[in-house]
Design goal:
Elements: E1 12-16, H1 23-30, E2 35-38, H2 48-54, E3 58-62, H3 71-83, E4 88-93, H4 95-108, E5 112-116, E6 127-132, E7 135-140, E8 148-152, H5 153-156, H6 161-179, H7 186-208, H8 213-232, H9 237-249, H10 253-268, H11 273-283, H12 288-298, H13 315-324, H14 335-347
Parallel strand pairs: 1-8, 2-3, 2-4, 4-5, 5-8
Antiparallel strand pairs: 6-7
Helix pairs in contact: 3-4, 6-7, 6-8, 6-10, 7-8, 7-11, 9-10, 9-13, 10-12, 10-14, 11-12, 13-14
Bound molecules: nicotinamide-adenine-dinucleotide (NAD).
Residues 40, 42-43, 67-69, 93-97, 99, 117-118, 120-122, 125, 127-129, 155-156, 158-159, 163, 167, 230, 253-254 line the site of nicotinamide-adenine-dinucleotide.
């Protein structure tokens, strides 16, 4: 066994079906009585059962969460949170809603109960990405790590299969990079591998039958395992590229992860053989980057940056931004090789 350092993060996780009904008890156990409920505008209706359950314990509702956590939205939500005298935050939604909750927690230290409805994994990480004037910056702070996560499989049944696929591959990306992180450790790598295995099995089953509760449940478990990996160890080239593409070119989060992952892994494969072996094992394949490309393509997900609306002449800007603040990565970042990697992603070439 190689030497390692492992930091366990605190957090309580409730996983199952019908668990939304337990949010009130969780709130009471924390000793809080006035909740600020958060969602996106499109999913405002999902808060109704929570409002019915909590009654007078709902201090306020802010249904304006947006992708990439713009600071203007946070300012508005923060003012509403303060105005209603909330003593805790309850976020129900995908990574955008969780991001807003974390941004408010950063500024207030209010405790959070997060109820995820996608596989983004943000709920399990002490990471917050925020966008100001079109520039996205990321920080790690224990203030933003949610105190309680309530995973309710029932809430994920409405996630359209096409979104489940890209969101699931977004989760796989956390695990994939976690396996070759400089601070990887046996505990997290075990979880990462199992998360990939669960998602790789579940996503085709969800596409075949959107109402397959077993597959939905496996996918949500996989999302948790991958989210824990994201929260525990450092991310490399793949997350850096997606961060720049999302922040500077406004590309959609989960779709961008889906397109970039096979190419970022192909770039790193020769420098991270053990991680590739574990990933391939979890995917039930011999070559992890190619298997992830095939998984996305066979499930109808986008496989090229071109299809996401990326301008081809922007690729060099992405590489420049990546090299200006390079992440820890198993293979050294070289301009020419990165341009070739991004060109493959742009064209949607199988690695
Ligand atoms: P999202 O939260 O924007 O959700 C995508 C869309 O799906 C939204 O329109 C949403 O309303 C809808 N939706 C969500 N759940 C649904 C459901 N069950 N049924 C039907 N529709 C549903 O997207 P996302 O991919 O979950 O999250 C992306 C955001 O999260 C980005 O801003 C990203 O930076 C952030 N993120 C942060 C971390 C972190 O650790 N800080 C990790 C992952 C993602």
């Amino acid at each position: 066994m190689d030497p390692f350092v492992y930091n366990a993060l605190p957090g309580r996780v409730i996983f199952g079906s019908g668990t939304l009904a337990r949010v009130g008890d969780e709130m009471a156990a924390l000793g809080f009585t006035r909740a600020m409920l958060l969602s996106t505008a499109g999913r405002r209706g999902d808060l109704a059962p929570l409002e019915a359950q909590l009654g007078e314990r709902v201090a306020g509702v802010f249904a304006g969460a947006a992708m990439h956590t713009p600071v203007e939205v946070t300012a508005e939500a923060l003012a509403a949170t303060k105005a209603c005298g909330a003593d805790c935050l309850i976020a129900l939604g995908g990574g955008s809603t969780t991001g807003l909750s974390k941004a408010i927690a950063l500024r207030t230290d209010l405790p959070q109960i997060v109820i995820p409805t996608t596989y983004a994994g943000s709920e399990a990480s002490p990471i917050l990405g925020e966008t100001r004037d079109g520039v996205k910056t990321t920080q790690r702070s224990m203030r933003v790590l949610p105190e309680v996560i309530v995973y309710d499989v029932d809430l994920t049944l409405s996630l359209p299969p096409a979104m489940a696929v890209v969101s699931g591959i977004n989760a796989i990306a956390h695990a994939a990079e976690g396996l070759y992180a400089p601070n990887a450790n046996p505990m997290i790598s075990m979880l990462a591998e199992d998360g990939v295995r669960a998602l790789a099995r579940a996503l085709p089953a969800i596409v075949a039958d959107a109402g397959d509760r077993g597959a939905r449940s496996d996918a949500l478990y996989g999302a948790w395992a991958c989210g824990v990996t994201l929260g525990a160890v450092a991310m490399g080239l793949h997350h850096k590229l997606c961060h720049v593409l999302g922040g500077s070119f406004g590309l959609p989060h989960a779709e961008t992860h889906t397109v970039i992952l096979p190419h970022a892994l192909a770039y790193n494969a020769s420098a991270a053989p053990e991680a590739m072996t574990r990933l391939a094992r979890a995917l039930g394949a011999s070559d992890a980057p190619a298997a992830l490309f095939d998984l996305a393509k066979s499930l109808g997900a986008p496989v090229s940056l071109k299809a996401l609306g990326m301008p081809e002449d922007g690729l060099s800007k992405v590489v420049d931004q990546c090299l200006a603040a390079p992440p820890a990565n198993p293979r050294a970042l070289e301009h020419e090789a990165l341009m070739a990697c991004l060109q493959d992603a742009f064209d949607g070439r199988r690695p």
